[in-house]
Design goal:
The complex is a heterodimer. Chain A is mostly helical. Chain A contains nine helices and no strands. The radius of gyration of chain A is 17 Å and the shape is globular. The termini of chain A are far apart. Residues 28-52 and 193-197 of chain B have low confidence and may be disordered. In chain B, strand 6 and strand 7 (137-140) form a beta hairpin. Chain B is of the alpha+beta class. Chain B has a four-stranded antiparallel sheet. Chain B has a four-stranded mixed sheet with strand order 3-8-9-5. Helix content of chain B is 26%, strand content 26%. Chain B has one domain (54-195). The chains are: A mainly alpha, B alpha+beta.
């Protein structure tokens, strides 16, 4: 049985509409986690390639598109972190970089600057258990609802709620942890 | 061109290539004849050009049938293709990085490859007559494109250009192609500035 592909992976017009809806959000999502414009640009490309690879898991009716997309982006970025570690060991692996014009770089640097508080928040969360940190991240920093965050992470909403509660309790002295959508 | 637009173009090529691979695989899969009928894929996607951005280009039609395209920004090539189709001419538009071009083989050139091989020959070719440079874009003459044929246009914008600068702002190449148009394979074009239109 062949996997059914969502239209965004098979129809260039549908893909373009999807891309235009979300390319800014994806760029911001990445700018909250990575502070180098070239890496952000490369990751934007990788996330949308991953969208094509994962399109069989895409269901337009299953909650917000953005939750699914952030789920894909999270997986991509953790793959990137693994690779960054590998690159550190192999030093000269810099091929596959996108070429950016100066104004691209300037725009991305602005984005990255604007997301500086979010990157600080990440540092504060670093010691939380992975499962709790993931939920807190998506709710507080990326502004998903708990249900959307659960969807992005592939866990049940109840589980997400519990983890969010625990994470907030651990970090209750930090000002930002109660931010984010209520549900 | 912004990197987001460049990336979109590359990704859409990838979507097209994947769809083609799947179609081929599906044909093989159903070649045994066990399946009676395949439902026609009839759905039409509606493009959403959201927003407050000013249009990237303008298309207008003159009384003599000439279609004028004025390009303000090199983005939304697909929408431009759709608008031109609506105006009655089939086109394939590619926006490229300066210093690159599409590989020559885009399909069967009307008048033969020799009709675009030299500047002198090109002047009299259907390709040259179908698209002519105008102030801020090109004038398309549909009568030189014709039915069942596609006007293939690729543009590259010079990032060094600023208003008033004495350099080439952008250049384009036009080819009228009979039948199937092959996708653009981007290659380096070291003498971009010298080759002109």
């Amino acid at each position: 049985m062949r996997r059914k592909q969502a239209k965004i992976a098979t129809d260039p017009v549908a893909f373009e509409a999807f891309y235009r809806r979300h390319v800014d959000a994806v760029t911001r999502f990445l700018s909250r986690r990575v502070d180098d414009p070239h890496t952000v640009a490369d990751l934007v490309a990788e996330v949308f390639v991953a969208v094509l690879d994962s399109a069989h898991t895409y269901r337009a009716d299953l909650g917000a598109e953005i939750a699914w997309l952030y789920g894909v982006a999270r997986k991509t970025i953790s793959a990137e972190r693994r690779r960054a570690y590998k690159q550190y060991q192999l030093t000269d692996r810099v091929s596959g970089r996108r070429t950016l014009h100066d104004d691209d770089v300037a725009r991305l640097e602005e984005r990255i600057d604007a997301e500086r508080p979010a990157r600080r928040a990440f540092e504060a969360m670093a010691d939380l258990p992975e499962g709790e940190r993931a939920v807190l991240e998506l709710v507080v920093i990326d502004q998903l609802t708990v249900t959307e965050a659960a969807h992005a992470l592939g866990i049940r909403p109840g589980t997400a709620k519990v983890r969010l509660h625990r994470a907030r309790r651990t970090l209750r002295d930090l000002p930002f942890v109660m931010d984010g959508a209520p549900r | 061109m912004r990197f987001e637009e460049q990336l979109l173009m590359e990704l859409k090529e990838e979507v097209g290539a994947r769809a083609e691979r799947r179609r081929r695989a599906t044909r093989r899969l159903f070649a045994g004849g066990a399946v009676a009928a395949l439902a026609a894929a009839a759905a039409v996607a509606v493009p959403l050009l959201t927003g407050s951005e000013p249009p990237a280009y303008a298309v207008s039609k003159a009384g003599d049938g000439t279609i004028r395209v004025e390009i303000k920004e090199f983005r939304d090539a697909d929408q431009l293709e759709r608008d031109l189709r609506q105006a009655g001419v089939s086109t394939d538009v590619t926006y490229l990085e300066y210093g690159t071009r599409c590989e020559d083989d885009r399909g069967r050139i009307v008048g033969g490859a020799e009709s675009v091989a030299t500047h002198d020959a090109f002047r009299d070719s259907a390709s040259a007559k179908a698209a002519r440079p105008s102030g801020a874009g090109v004038d398309i003459h549909p009568e030189f494109v014709g039915q069942g044929r596609t006007l293939v246009l690729d543009f590259s914008e010079n990032p060094a250009w600023t208003p008033g600068a004495p350099t080439v702002r952008w250049q384009y190449r036009a080819r009228v192609i009979e039948g199937q148009v092959k996708p653009c394979v981007v290659v380096d074009d070291p003498d971009a500035a010298a080759s002109g239109s």
